[in-house]
Amino acid sequence: MGEQLHSDRAPSAELLRPSNLLRIGRETVIKSGLLIPGNEPNQIEVLRELEPVVEGELNRHNRARKPWVPADYMPIDQESGLILHRVTDPEETPLLSPEAQSAMIVNLLTEDNLPSYHRVIANNFGLDGPWGTWTNQWTAEEDNHAYAIRSFLDLTRAFDPAKNEAMRMEQMKQGYMIEKDPLHTLAYVTFQELATRVSHRQTGIAAHNDIADKMLQRIALDENFHMLFYRNLAGAALDVAPNQMMQAIRDEVLSFQMPGANIENFQVRALQIANAGIYDLRRHLEEVVVPVLRKWKIFERDDITGYGALARDELDAFLTKLDVDAKRFEDKRDSGQVSRAIAALQRHRGL
Ligand SMILES: [Fe+2]
Ligand SMILES: [Fe+2]
């Protein structure tokens, strides 16, 4: 293994593709010399080198982020204690539009799988030192998100609580497994946190309800803080191991999927969400992918070479394709084709 650790061989792009990585976390990387490319430090060394950055980022995060109390964001009148916006007949007068409801449910079920995310992140970054401190605190912060959203839905009866609970059980029983190494995880969570931020924020706007909007704004702010942490860590990883990190970024942009893709009727819900402009390819490209790549100065760096440069070219080509796909979707949306597809899917599935 010692020889492989210092091999000049680039890591096999095929091996590094997320679909081919079988449970590659910290432990596996240690055992796998195959993941160690050329003259860059291996991933465990990168994680160790980043420890002071984690500490600095954690301190910055704690200075910037003010704690919040979910009870302050509930639909409850502070003086009388009465529940506000309580729905008596959801069929006749629903609180939320079908799109806003779908978005809130998808966001909630995604948040629900937090124990799985904690396991994945702890497995990748380890639970000792500053990485572990961050992971536990991040988990504690995330834990308020599902609690707040579910409380809002349960109190207002905007969504049937029994149905909501059944969906939560189903989602958590499936759990969430992701097969990535630490650098791929770092790239993924940067995009994922930002995507979640955009999604919560736009759902708040689409809800047309002041209380839901304020609550989702606050959650979105948390997601932004998380994104900043991971984005800065990934930026530091680019400095330490530019080619490996470049490869990870290429893989994660090309294969990006929200963790909620296994939710019941996800296809219809995702189409509804995209049709309403809450989260669609255009937002994904212009509000998530491009701003992060710009911050990392991906296309300006001169330290990316060899297989890293190849990965960057592939990423560049993919961005052009994403733009074409986004335009195509917008045309379909404008012509009403997406609405018709949603209606057909709903009829087909008896929704
Ligand atoms: Fe969250
Ligand atoms: Fe988050």
Brief write-up:
The chain has 351 residues and is mainly alpha-helical.
Radius of gyration: 21 Å
> Per CATH, which architecture?
Orthogonal Bundle
Q: What's the assembly state of these chains?
A: single chain
Q: Give every kind of bound small molecule, once each.
A: fe (ii) ion
What is the number of E strands? Answer: 0
Could you explain how this protein is built, in words?
The protein is mostly helical and 351 residues long. The radius of gyration is 21 Å and the shape is globular. The chain has a single domain, classed as Ribonucleotide Reductase, subunit A (Orthogonal Bundle). The chain contains 16 helices and no strands. It is 69% helix and 0% strand. The structure holds fe (ii) ion (FE2) (2 copies).
Descriptive key words:
351 residues, 16 helices
Lay out the secondary structure.
Blueprint (H helix, E strand, L loop, with lengths): L1 H4 L7 H4 L9 H6 L11 H7 L1 H14 L33 H15 L1 H12 L3 H28 L4 H14 L7 H26 L2 H31 L1 H13 L11 H10 L5 H15 L10 H29 L2 H13 L2
Helix pairs in contact: 5-8, 5-11, 6-8, 6-9, 6-10, 6-13, 7-8, 8-11, 10-11, 10-12, 10-14, 11-12, 12-15, 13-16
Bound molecules: fe (ii) ion (FE2) (2 copies).
One fe (ii) ion (FE2) binds next to helix 10 and helix 11.
